[in-house]
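hey can u run this one w/ zinc ion bound, need the structure tokens asap thx
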Amino acid sequence: MEVLEVSSGGVVLTYSHANNKIHINLSALPHENQTVIFKIKYKGEPQDGLIIGKNKYGDRGFFGDNWPDRAHHWLPVVDHPFDKSSVDFSINAPLHYSVVANGIKVEESFISEKRKLTRWHEEVPIPVKVMVVGIARFATELAGKVDGIPVESWVYPQNKAEGFYDYAVATRVLDFFHTHVGPYSYKKLANVQSKTRWGGLENANTIFYYENSITGKGQAESLIAHEEAHQWFGNSVTEQDWHHVWLSEGFATYFAGLYLEHTYGHDRLVAEAANQRKQVIDYFHKNPGSVLDTTITDLAKLLTTNTYQRAGWVLHMLRHEVGDLTFWKGIQKYYLLIKMEMP
Ligand SMILES: [Zn+2]
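ok here u go:
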């Protein structure tokens, strides 16, 4: 990306841009201890972080895909989970695209014969790893509302019947977490078919799923449950540093299981847990290690059986140790306390 100008309060600042970092010279600014707002103008086609290309039906689209630290390829940010903020996106795009992003849509205006402006506003501070836009041909449906929160499906028009069917279960999932863990933090939940490189990416209230998550057979339910659990654990309650990723992935893994238990009965969780137990043991024989490994600096090594299944098992064992009632009370308290302490 090419940086065109850096300014603050109308004062143009000097800067250097190299190795994915912008160094801004602050000597032209007052030195008092105050909040400074920078305006950074830049252009180009990002190398990564924003996936631009054709989907499986040959339609072009643009999908943010930041995890873990790929956001800085297209957004000028401190690319770390501790740095949370509100975010606004204003997208000027050709008319045939629909635009989805974090938060609520505050404007959609035709600005010429061929283009329109769409603005989304997220007021709740969210980590950079889950800030996104999705720009594509979409079919959209309101799947339902949970406690007044709209749950939307955004899918490719070519598979809209299957997509609307598969993603509609998201309302039932939202209801479970909203009721059992604590109030949902955001004003909408969109489930979006996308070009994410992951199976699903829990972007704040704008979850992206891989293209083939849609089959028309309701096979995405546990994936949806996992990504929705992240809205509480990962997005709302966010790890201070990368190596604490189990607080996000271990919780999402186990809470997807708790949703399935609630919906289909205890045997379903037992089956999931037995399967994951085997994975944990097999993994441990080859890679002894722990759920929390502070020595990990290579972010590609964060997502392991330790941080997903084994961390989920830690929660399962905790529940067994303290009993269901105390477990749920503890989870609710943990969620609310940590959330109150965070930005
Ligand atoms: Zn996850």
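The pocket of zinc ion is lined by residues 202, 226, 230, 249, 252 (CB under 6 Å). anyway lmk if its weird
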